[in-house]
Each structure stands twice: as structure tokens, then as C-alpha cells.
Amino acid sequence: MSFGSAAARRGRRPPPAVPCPCGSGHTFSACCGPVLEGASAPSPEALMRSRFTAFALGDLAHLQSSWHPTTRPQSLALDDASEWRRLDVIRTHQEGTRGTVEFRAHWRDPASGATGELHEVSRFRQFSGRWFYVDGEIE
Ligand SMILES: [Zn+2]
């Protein structure tokens, strides 16, 4: 264990003023940045966006801490082969402490140039004022 490995678990960080990797049109510091630093996501969509950005930046720590403890994998590895390039949020629904977000996440394999998308409906639940990712169904 070293500071180096702890920093690697938190992934890369873009400059605060660049457009957020989730594609919201806001800057990183006005969008997913604070959630990746531990702020509570205000909605299921905001948590979904922060998790996409965490995939794009390689932030394993945020992926794990935002995953509900009952469904969180024992260990998590990121597929280095894929670049997560764009997120399209199709539909969001929130009722009380439950929420769903339907999205398409677009990826590219830099080695082969192959591209594809993940189309999923993710489920979220709120506990003690914080949203967590529970699970998802691939469409
Ligand atoms: Zn964002």
C-alpha cells in the first residue's frame, strides 16, 4: 500500500473547467466532480452520471462506495481495454427512495477501434439521504 496505489484507485481527474465526461454539458466541477469527491448525489440520475464518469476516469473507489452493500461485488476491476466515451440518459424515474435510470453508455476499444454500447435500466435506492446503485437489467 502506498499513496500511489490509493491515488490510482481514485482514478484520473480532469481540470475542473473542462466539460464533464458524462456529457451533461456542465463543467466537471459543476457536475460529477463533487460526487466523485464524496458529496451526496441529489438524484438517481446524478449518481448514474457520476458512476459513468467514474468508469471513464477509472475511479474504482467511487464505483464501490456508490454500490449498495447488498449487491456490491467483493472486488471490482475495470476493463482497461474499453474507453467509455459518451452517456445518453434516456429516461429517469424517481418515487420516494427508489429510482431507475435508463441509459446508453457508448464505449470504444482503442486497440481495435471497435465501438459498442451498453443499454441498461439501472435501479437505485436511497438510504440515510444517499443514493446507491442496486443493480441493472441489460436491455
Ligand atoms: Zn457529469
Automatic annotation (TrEMBL):
It comes from the Bacteria. Gene3D superfamilies: 3.10.450.50. It holds the Pfam family SEC-C. Residues 43-136 form the YchJ-like middle NTF2-like domain. Belongs to the UPF0225 family. This is UPF0225 protein N4R40_02080. It comes from Microbacterium memoriense.
